[in-house]
Amino acid sequence: MDKKSTISVFSDNEVMLREGDTGGEMLKIISGKAALYLHFGEESEYLIGVLSEGKCFGEVSLLAGKPSPYTVVAVGEVMTMRVTADQFESFVRDNTRNAVDIMKNMASRIVMLNANLNLLANDLSELAKSSDKSSQTLNYTDITQKIRMYQIAGLTSNFSDLA
Predict the structure, then answer these.
(1) pTM, 2 dp
(2) Cα(134)–Cα(142) distance, rounded to whole angstroms?
(3) How confident is the chain (163 residues) per 10-residue block, as mean pLDDT?
(4) Distance CA 41, CA 161 (A)
């Protein structure tokens, strides 16, 4: 563990990372488990996976500067190690197994997103063919449901084997 890293303890049901946040840090679970949700606390809340000891999250925001695609919530007490952007390079150098895991997770997301985009394009094409030809418009609700289905399927496949 990097001597400069910060250890944090989260209580049961405490939000560790919120969907949409662009944090400059990654967290590695030292002990405990964390649940990943889409739309946490909303009517459309959806559990996409559970991360266990040794797993990292927040790397997308850290590396890409993009908002987190999910909310992470503590399941019981969870102890984490925070790795900031300034510490990330040395963390990867000193923890090669974690670096490989991070790369595998990101590669898996890319492959799944590409596959889902192709499936979504095919489904939208079918919706267009089956829609009312006189109006030449697609039902917005149908399109939104299809997009959400593929978004959830892609995220779920990335985290189903991480526990």
Answers:
(1) 0.70
(2) 18
(3) 74 95 88 92 86 87 87 97 91 86 78 73 75 58 68 54 45
(4) 24
User: Which class is domain 6-159?
Assistant: mainly beta
Q: Using CA of residue 42, residue 18, residue 29, residue 31, what is the dihedral sign?
A: negative
Task: Please enumerate in sequence order all residues whose Cβ is within 8 A of that of 160, keeping only pairs 6 or more positions apart, or say none.
Answer: 49
Cβ-in-10-Å burial (0-12, 13-18, 19+) of 124 comes to middle
H-only helix segments in the chain: 59-64, 85-94, 96-130, 140-159
CA distances to 23, 32, 49, 139 from 106, rounded to whole Å, are 18, 23, 16, 33
